[in-house]
Amino acid sequence: MVRTFKPDLLAGSGGLVTVITVEEDGIERGLNAWPSNDTDTRKYNRQEDDDG
């Protein structure tokens, strides 16, 4: 699964991080992460708008 989120550390800067995750035994772990690109950021912002 790929997730994009705003970590607390970057909250003031507006920065987003995209993370590849796997879930095993009910625990979600990040495998790799990178600064979000424009496409990831648009998807995140659209999701935020839908969640209201």
Structural class: alpha+beta
**Oligomer kind:** single chain
SS summary, helix count: 1
Number of strands: 3
How is this structure best described in words?
A hairpin with a 2-residue loop joins β2 (17-24) and β3 (27-35). This protein is of the alpha+beta class. It starts with a strand and ends with a helix. The protein has one helix at 38-51, and strands at 2-5, 17-24, 27-35. A three-stranded antiparallel sheet has the order 1-2-3. The mean pLDDT is 82.
Key traits:
1 helix; alpha+beta; 40% strand; 52 residues; single chain
Helix/strand layout:
Layout: E1 2-5, E2 17-24, E3 27-35, H1 38-51
Would you summarize the structure shown here?
Helices cover 27% and strands 40% of the residues. The chain is α+β, with helices and mostly antiparallel strands and 52 residues long.
